[in-house]
Specification:
This protein is an alpha/beta fold. The protein has a domain at 9-37 and 97-206: 3-Layer(aba) Sandwich (Rossmann fold), CATH 3.40.50. The chain has helices at 20-30, 60-68, 87-95, 106-116, 130-140, 145-159, 174-189, 198-206; strands at 4-5, 9-13, 34-36, 40-41, 56-57, 72-78, 81-86, 99-103, 120-126, 167-170, 195-196. The chain has a 5-stranded parallel beta sheet, with helices on both faces. It has a 4-stranded mixed beta sheet with strand order 5-4-7-6. A two-stranded antiparallel sheet has the order 1-11. The structure holds guanosine-5'-monophosphate. Guanosine-5'-monophosphate binds at residues 16, 39, 43, 74, 76, 78, 83-85, 103-105, 107-108. The site of guanosine-5'-monophosphate has 14 residues, from strand 6, strand 7 and helix 4.
């Protein structure tokens, strides 16, 4: 059988603190065909984060250089910092047949949709309540009160973009949410249009080959 699959781009968006990063890490652990797109950002590194693993932390000059040399697939300003997706890594992985997972906001999602809608699967993750969001941001212990308040006040604006996504998940239970996303991934991978060589396979099948 010579059916190869075109890699897809799986975007997870949510307001900060809805549990998206935890879900993304769990997906990457479970599924060997997934690769993580590591963004560049001008934001300050949190204690728990590692350069090159969670983000590539760069200064504004370097970010602008990358952006202007078209090294970024998409980019946006979020909470006063710049974020962007390095293009080469993503294209290399897709070419190798891997699926790439993105933890990006609605602005980046719109830009990628503009470039490659057919290769894109988008999921919006909602918190069950705004209180849960606040609690998660606080218990993370990584951001100061001012940052948390800013993120809370931006949450409603981020949430307003939910209708632009293919799937919406209310994350009231981590295991259930993870299961739903795995199911989405399995279904999207089986789409006829993503299976290159399918027509030849069916032809041979019908001829008894
Ligand atoms: P955080 O600072 O909490 O890691 O991320 C803040 C927001 O920026 C999150 O909504 C996250 O999804 C988004 N974000 C992270 N990386 C990128 C990126 O490369 N592009 C865009 N457009 N948004 C990003």
């Amino acid at each position: 059988m010579n059916i190869v699959r075109r890699g897809l781009m799986l975007v997870l968006s949510s307001p900060s603190g809805a549990g998206k990063t935890t879900i993304a890490h769990a997906l990457l652990k479970q599924d060997m065909n997934l690769r993580n797109s590591i963004s560049v950002t001008t934001r300050t590194k949190r204690h728990s984060e590692e350069h090159g693993k969670d983000y590539f932390f760069v200064d504004a000059d370097n970010f602008v250089k990358m952006r202007d040399s078209e090294a970024l697939l998409e980019h946006a300003q979020v909470f006063g910092n710049y974020y962007g997706t390095p293009k080469k890594f993503v294209f290399d992985q897709l070419e190798k047949g891997f699926d790439v997972i993105f933890d990006i906001d609605w602005q980046g999602t719109q830009q990628i949709a503009h470039l490659a809608r057919n290769d894109l699967v988008t999921i919006f993750i909602l918190p069950p309540t705004l209180e849960t969001l606040h609690e998660r941001l606080k218990s993370r212990g990584e951001d100061n009160d001012e940052t948390i308040n800013k993120r809370m006040s931006d949450a409603s604006a981020e949430i307003s973009h939910w209708p632009e996504y293919d799937y919406v998940i209310v994350n009231d239970n981590f295991e259930k949410s993870l299961g739903k996303i795995m199911a989405i991934l399995v279904a999207e991978r089986s789409k006829r249009t993503r299976q290159i060589g399918l027509a030849e396979f069916v032809n041979e099948l019908r001829q008894g080959g």
